[in-house]
Specification:
Elements: H1 12-15, H2 28-43, H3 54-61, H4 65-81, H5 83-93, H6 95-113, H7 119-148, H8 153-160, H9 162-195, H10 197-204, H11 213-218, H12 227-236, H13 242-261, H14 264-269, H15 271-287, H16 289-300, H17 305-330, H18 339-359, H19 363-391, H20 397-426, H21 430-469
Helix pairs in contact: 2-7, 2-9, 2-10, 4-7, 4-20, 5-6, 5-7, 6-7, 6-9, 6-10, 8-17, 9-17, 12-13, 15-18, 15-19, 15-20, 15-21, 16-17, 17-19, 18-19, 18-21, 20-21
């Protein structure tokens, strides 16, 4: 929602209680940016450290690779797929409340996880509750950035994304240290306290309101034609078909809600959005596999636990420098309309890099793998939403984003457990990287070739339209010849 808005308007829940205008792109806005950096590190960066606890959780609950991988899969899927619910809460209660609610849920989920007696309980506490809390904090935090920054919005979003890289760097190192000193239960308890700092970040993100009343008024939802008269009839009981009208009204409101947050009409009509959504959803089947299984794979091949955790930190450290640069570079006008090819190239490099792990599991080779993987991952992460803005009109972006994240979360959910099941059957960790390469390479080729074909089709259509608009320019000398049907 924050990416969609080009004007600084707070939701109804935050419009009340402040009568003075807040400056944008200056002053307190930079404190909000600092809070957003911390927030993204606490939310998006947190799931990367779960691989450190993989072997301990397996041993504690006597669980297979597939059963254990459901825990991070649920967390990441809910983090990405809870977007529509977060948008509804932001509209009703405002960004600040939702960020703080998310911090409370995240902390509660991890504290509860430290008392779990079975792996299935961990699915509910750390997977569902912590994942949902992280979703609320992250997405509401991104939304409030769109209100505080107008002129420097691109720069602010690029700087805020460094929080993810900081999280990737620090979470694994902290996890391994606490795990060695205290065990996984006490570590999860401490993590609950750390994630409560999302509430502090939310408190910094105070509501902003412009002095102009017309803008605030435009934020109110428009009434549908005839809805007022219909509701009046229902309230007065004047209609003979009271129950029928009531059901019809409910169906209309439900359809409008789905249309607003899940853009099925765009998916059916916009070929570019259709190709990109399917391609990204397919990509996510293999995208998270190295993050979940890289540490267990390294430990399985004789790498020390401390060094194995350091691999994830290397990925995050390189991301700190590469990801903002990639985001700013792709925003140059030279790449306008061509970002989908950059995204496909990054996904292709991601898939090809997995073959390094198949060749060797030496620590020095795994460091090289992490460097290349981090560069590719920076491209995918920085371009995902920019490409979506290219293929969808901005007035429908939030709707398109809702369906996009739902489909993405489904594949993020089922990818690691399916691969874990394959590893359990074969006892071979190489299938993690085979699967990841298959999904990423095939998705990259699908998107790149499909958009290339779509672009050629659009050019032919435009040329044909130009012929029809200016027939005198394309007349033949022999006027008796009849044109063939296209």
């Amino acid at each position: 929602a924050g990416l969609e808005e080009n004007r600084a308007i707070m939701p109804q829940g935050e419009a009340a209680g402040r009568g003075t205008a807040q400056p944008q792109d200056q002053g307190w806005a930079w404190m909000v940016l600092l809070a957003a950096v911390v927030l993204q590190g606490l939310t998006l960066g947190f799931p990367c450290c779960i691989g450190v606890f993989f072997k301990d959780l397996q041993h504690e609950f006597q669980a297979s690779n597939s059963q254990t991988s459901w825990f991070p899969s649920i967390m990441v899927a809910v983090l990405h797929g809870g977007g529509p619910l977060c948008s509804i809460l932001v509209k009703q209660f405002g960004c600040r409340f939702v960020v703080m609610l998310g911090g409370l849920l995240s902390g509660l989920g991890m504290v509860s996880s430290s008392f779990c007696k079975s792996i299935s309980q961990l699915y509910l506490t750390a997977g569902l509750i912590t994942g949902l809390g992280s979703c609320f904090s992250f997405q509401a935090g991104v939304t409030v950035m769109g209100y505080y920054f107008v002129r420097w919005r691109t720069l602010a979003n690029a700087v805020a994304s460094t929080g993810v890289s900081l999280g990737f760097t620090l979470w694994p190192l902290l996890s391994q240290y606490l795990l060695d000193k205290m065990g996984w239960r006490n570590t999860f308890l401490i993590f609950g306290g750390i994630l409560l700092n999302c509430c502090v970040c939310g408190a910094i993100m105070r509501p902003i309101q412009l002095a102009s009343g017309s803008l605030l008024e435009s934020a109110k939802p428009k009434e549908e034609p005839g809805s007022g008269a219909e509701e009046a009839q229902l309230s007065n009981g004047a209609s003979p078909h009271h129950s029928t009208l009531q059901k019809h009204t409910r169906r209309t409101k439900c359809f409008q809600m789905l249309q607003k947050y899940l853009a099925f009409d765009i998916f059916c009509q916009n070929k570019g959005y259709q190709i990109y959504t399917i391609g990204v959803a397919w990509t996510m089947m293999g995208f998270a596999l190295p993050h979940v299984y890289l540490v267990p794979y390294a430990i399985h091949n004789g790498v020390e636990e401390g060094k194995a955790a350091l691999l994830i930190s290397i990925i995050g450290l390189i991301n700190i420098f590469i990801r903002p640069f990639t985001g700013l570079l792709s925003g140059h006008r030279v790449f306008t309309g061509r970002r989908i090819y950059l995204f496909s190239l990054a996904a292709l490099l991601y898939g090809l890099s997995n073959f390094i792990c198949i060749i060797s599991a030496e620590f020095s080779v795994l460091i090289l793998y992490c460097v290349i993987l981090s560069i590719a991952m920076s491209g995918v992460g920085a371009l995902t939403f920019q490409v979506l803005m290219d293929v969808v009109e901005m007035d429908r972006f939030s709707s398109a984003l809702g369906l996009f994240t739902i489909l993405e979360s489904i594949t993020l959910l089922i990818g690691p457990p399916l691969t874990g099941f394959l590893v359990d059957i074969t006892s071979d960790f190489h299938y993690v990287f085979y699967n990841s390469s298959f999904f990423l390479i095939s998705a990259a080729l699908f998107m790149g070739l499909s958009f290339c074909a779509l672009e050629k089709k659009n050019k032919l259509r435009e040329a044909s339209k130009a012929c029809l608009d200016n027939p005198s320019r394309y007349q033949y000398s022999e006027t008796s010849t009849e044109p063939k049907a296209e």
